[in-house]
Amino acid sequence: MKAAIIKGIGQAPTLSEISAPVSDQPSVLVNVKASALSNVTKARSMGNHYSSANDFPRTAGMDGVGTLENGKRVYFANSMTGSLAEQTLVDQKMLISLPDNLSDHMAAAIANPGMSSYAALVYRAQIKPGDVVLINGATGTAGVLAVAMAYTLGAEKVIVTGRGYEQLRSVNADAYLATDSFDLADQAGQTAYMNELGKLTTDVTIVLDYLFGDTATLIINSLAKTIGGAHRIRYIEIGAIAGQDAKISGAALRSSKIEIMGSGLRSVDMADMYTTLQNVFRLAAENQWSVPIAIFTLDQISTAWSAPNAPRPVIAIS
């Protein structure tokens, strides 16, 4: 069968012919229909993620949508043999039934970004009605979906930051601030950005950060200055597109009620991740959520692997 194979750490996959996997209990055979290429999927596949195994060669991909031998349509997580192949083996406990009105391609595309915001808001931030949510990096697929997720889960107000004034304005948040309106390489630009941010965030109680890096430093310093110890703020790091490290002032933490934590594959229990995915698909179907996607075939894996993250690349396999 056809599969996208990665031969060594950090390498992109190439199309290859491999033997079909043989199922044994408790694994089940899934005929793969679609698998999306998220940042975490690519990083884990290439051995560049904190949760990666470094056994090569291997089939790329970690999740997707497919059918069982009885024809039942399912989403599967944590594929045992890689999802970017015509067939894969999956632990039976990692299968989730899909709503009829959610297509294969959309289910594959929405799973990872939907999971990122739902898990962060429910299991890390413990969102409740009336919370005010700031989303840093709201122009990507995950960030845009996080806006809808926050409102659905009870947020009273959502504020968004990121690059691109027009893109931010289009996500239907209550307030927005474009970082590229300021020269953040300059001290005066950083101060101006923090001042403008401070005017918008006086009542923020939750931050979802998809960027981290220097933007996290500015946001945390601004919140500490603006809100200080007035109320608790749960700051959740989800992604690190702007940098894996951020310079956090000890004074900012001592002078505020900011609680910094992460949300990911090890900070949220697997059982909760499973429940998260079930609810993401339910909410997506109920609210008719969609994200922009670009569909590729398995033969186009090299092109798809290097394609932008938005629209979300989805590999149509059969």
Comma- or semicolon-separated keywords:
318 residues; Quinone Oxidoreductase, Chain A, domain 1; Rossmann fold; elongated; single chain; seven-stranded mixed β-sheet; 32% helix; 9 helices; six-stranded parallel β-sheet; alpha/beta
Describe the structure.
This is Zinc-binding alcohol dehydrogenase family protein. Residues 10-317 form the Enoyl reductase (ER) domain. It comes from Weissella muntiaci. This protein has nine helices and 16 strands. With 318 residues, it is an alpha/beta fold. It has two domains: 2-101 and 288-316, Medium-chain alcohol dehydrogenases, catalytic domain (Quinone Oxidoreductase, Chain A, domain 1); 124-262, 3-Layer(aba) Sandwich (Rossmann fold), CATH 3.40.50.720. The mean pLDDT is 96.
Q: What name does the CATH topology of the largest domain carry?
A: Rossmann fold
Encode the helix/strand succession as letters: EEEHEEEEEHEHEHEHEHEHEHEHE
Helical region count?
Answer: 9
Helix/sheet category = alpha/beta
Extract low-pLDDT stretches: none
Label the CATH architecture of the largest domain: 3-Layer(aba) Sandwich
Largest sheet, in brief, is: 7 strands, mixed
Helix percent band: 25-40%
Span between N and C termini?
12 Å
CATH C-level of the largest domain: Alpha Beta
Give the C-alpha Rg: 20 Å
The CATH superfamily of the largest domain is NAD(P)-binding Rossmann-like Domain
Query: What proportion of the residues form beta strands (DSSP E)?
Result: 15-25%
Shape descriptor: elongated
- In round numbers, the mean pLDDT is 96
Task: Tell me the domain tally.
Answer: 2
**Annotation, overall tally of beta strands:** 16
